[in-house]
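Review this chain:
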Amino acid sequence: MGTVVENVAIDCADAYGLARFWGAVVGRDVEGEAGDREVRVGMAEGPALYFNQVPEGKAGKNRLHLCLRPDTSRDEEVERLLALGASFLADRRNPDGTGWAVLADPEGNEFCVLRSQSERAAAN
């Protein structure tokens, strides 16, 4: 027996606005409209991203975060995400190419950008 993860819920101040950012990140459509308090971004595989508008702001570090593995290089993806409105928080990349970059979405939720599969394969 088991259960299925239906979605990853993200509390936020602007459900539609944050869903638009994440929809652009993952290249998927936003299911909702401006002003909606609950908005969804359906994924091609795995659980959906579900944005729930809440009255309180983010406080402290995320206890759960998303890790992204891009199709392009990690560094190219970091630049793309910064152009979409992400903020750079920490550089955990190592000289040997391992590691990750820590970014934050427009509401301050941390997430990581990992190396692509091709970068990982080239290192082996």
